[in-house]
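Q: Structure for this?
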Amino acid sequence: MLTTIKSELKPFEDLAHNFAVRELTANRKVNDSYPFGPFFDPVVARAYEAGLLGITVPEECSGAGQGIGALCVILDRISAVDASLSGIIFTNVLAQEIMLAAGGKDTLKDIMGQATDARSTLIAYPAFCNPGETQTRLDAVRTGGTYSLSGTIEYVVLGGMAGHALVPARIKGQDGYTFFLIDQGGKGLTKSEPIFSLGLHACPGVDLTLAGVEGRPVGKEGDGARCFDHASDRMHAAVAAIQCGIMKGAFQEALSYSQERFQGGREIINWSALRMLLGDMAVQAGIADMVVSGAAMAVDQQDPQWGLSARAAALHLSELACKLTTDGIQILGGNGYMKDYGQEKRFRDAKQVQALLGLFPLRKLGLVSAMAKGQ
Amino acid sequence: MISPEGSKSLPDRESRFDESLFSLQAMPKLPRGMLKETRKAVALAKKFNDEVVRPHALEIDRQTHADPEYLPWDLVKKANEWGFYTMFIPKLFGGQGFNMPASAYVVEELSSACVGIANVVFVHYLGVAGILASWNVSLANKIFREVVRGQKTGKPCIISLALTEPGAGTDVEENELIDRARLNCHAEKVKGGYIVNGSKIFISMGHVSEWCCLIAYSDLKKASENTVTFAVRTGTKGFTFGKHEDKMGQRACPASELIFEDCFIPDEYVLRDSRIREGFGTRPIADLIEQYIHFVVSVTRPAVGAFGTGVARGAYETALKFAGETEVDGKLLINHEWAQAMLAEMYKNVVIGRLSYTEANYANGLPGGIYNILQRKPVYYYQKYAPKFIFNYLISPLLDFEITQRIFRRLFVDSQSMEVQQRCSGWASLAKIVGTDMGVKNSQMAVELMGQAGLRHERGAEKFLRDSKLLQIYEGTNQLNRINLFNNLIGSSIPQARSFDE
Ligand SMILES: Cc1cc2nc3c(=O)[nH]c(=O)nc-3n(C[C@H](O)[C@H](O)[C@H](O)COP(=O)(O)OP(=O)(O)OC[C@H]3O[C@@H](n4cnc5c(N)ncnc54)[C@H](O)[C@@H]3O)c2cc1C
């Protein structure tokens, strides 16, 4: 829908669609078996070559200089096939957005400029939390001109593979937290085994333990929460887009299955109770498309209250996606529960994506707090 | 169209006392010993959870991801040692003879730790129910006693039930649909037995069972009147296992494909051939087959409701523990009002699930229900206190006489009215829908409440979610169960109402 309103986004949609069909469809099950099977390195490498890892990064930093709208159409298309790659793109963009919000354009420029492959481009980030809500367990101590970071930080997405990581830490004696960029090859850094998670298996995270790791501050000291909130507002639209893609994928698979599967002497789509379930899914997927378009445009046009629109979109679509993917399995009966079909993965992925950017109920409460403050 | 008089009388029909409040009707007549016995059964399940299930559940789940061909032999061995496979087999057949409704509380208990492992233990009773409801007590006696011997010798002997086929899942759960189904499991009568060809899929515990209660059809086009139920031993020539399904959850419990290729099954292993109707009263054959299915599901669907309730409880307990030890926004999660409301909702869901399956089992305990006879005080206490040798050496041989078989059929098949059958089956569906929906709901809420911790395998919440979803599918999808509820509790008293007829 977004591409009908903004035709300039069509090439991104085509790029993502073709990429998903070519690179993701055939190996969805194998890719999802990580951490017990191989990781899909070659796919990430090709995503890098196709320019999917720097969509919203300004051109002067060697990115594509696009807005959230372009990111949304890409994530939507990819997630319809395999949301794990969307998780990777999302995490990387989130880290980049925080850096940009913190005024770290030059640092980002360095990373992007010097990168020679996917790994050196990627920036790991703990994408499933809002550092302000949970206790940050990293401490930063200034030693001369640099900072030394110590402590543990959980669930750093891409932490096992990215060249850099962006992590929040508290500077001793100060309120709030600050973001630091660390070199993932640096001394004093220990990585756990990949976390075995509910969904997005091929978008892995690790726990990082830092013992005096050198960190480069990104933005002003103690300004982390502001940077996170700004980036988080924008990235909520991206969460909505991932959920929208998952929903469309689940609906399509349910629709085609129900036209092929026979029970009671007819295609199951012709039983009205099942058709009603499909009807609910069709409504939800249709709404999802409109919601993402609205949110992405609100962000890109900087509408008044664009942040609230983006947050509302993500919260609503996350709930819808969890419901729709449950029904998506149900329509396929026992087959829906098996890894040979895409529905069980979508069910897990939708729930996992719902947790991006922090505790789901608190994000809802935060929305009301922001409205009450008249933001 | 419902006539004005008909529509006026609808509310009267639906609130009929006998169709609800089963607990109130059943309780005064129940033996008091059932309570103590149920406590004992649940205490054993708790102990099993502490010593076997909880220490291993996550590790086994992990192992099944690393090796999708994993089979739970060790767990089966343990459950066998602990006596779970004979616990609810009546003493008449050599079992421990715990009262059957107690099984639901045991199921809930085990499922609150791991519903996959709870299935490793309890799918066996789906097979037991399939065999028992054939009322071929002679063959049932032979097989159940083998289960008992298996416990003594340490060589587990468990039973699966095979109904679902690749082309027919919902259709085989419902006799009204079965003649329109794409069936493939054919049983051809030959001299001395049957030749079976075809396949079954999604059969829980197939690969690790010693016996399979197999439902096949002597006429694939008119299965509603031509159903043959067999007991087939693993290893029988022509019976092999195909695919072991790669499932989202409940991975400790395998789902197997069963393949029958010119598999000869001798007459002595026929539990029931619907065309042979001697001793089965006057009901039409199709109704008898339907009654058989309803007997089985009246027992197994409340049990699935209990699986769901157990998952709901496990998810709730996991979330509660997390909320009590995790600080969010500067204070413990459990002290946020919104979190308290969520936890209260989850608690409520558990209770509603439990009330539903309990009530469905009370329905089974009323006259005409499958549990009724064993719960009559004289029978109950005789079963409980009579010395074992009376069952083993005096009563057991009698089970082989045709006259005994007839008595059982008279007691269970003929004496069950259509109203009782409908009440039990309708409530079984209700309990199944409620419990399983609560299981999924609470698992979702636990993951939400726990945020990123909820996503991690080692924290347990995500496994509850993966495991729970299956419950809405097997023992008939929840949609089929809604139609079954309509048919049995609503449509049955409305002459104009038709199901599967649009
Ligand atoms: C892990 C697992 C373990 C299992 N264990 C066993 C076992 O031990 N033994 C055994 O026999 N079976 C077992 N089953 C099978 C289970 O009972 C079936 O999966 C279930 O009955 C649904 O059948 P199906 O999968 O063929 O779905 P289908 O019947 O193909 O249904 C697909 C969809 O169509 C809907 N539908 C079908 N017909 C109608 C209709 N008339 N009106 C409205 N909607 C309709 C269904 O509700 C569902 O949403 C197991 C299944 C699984 C997944």
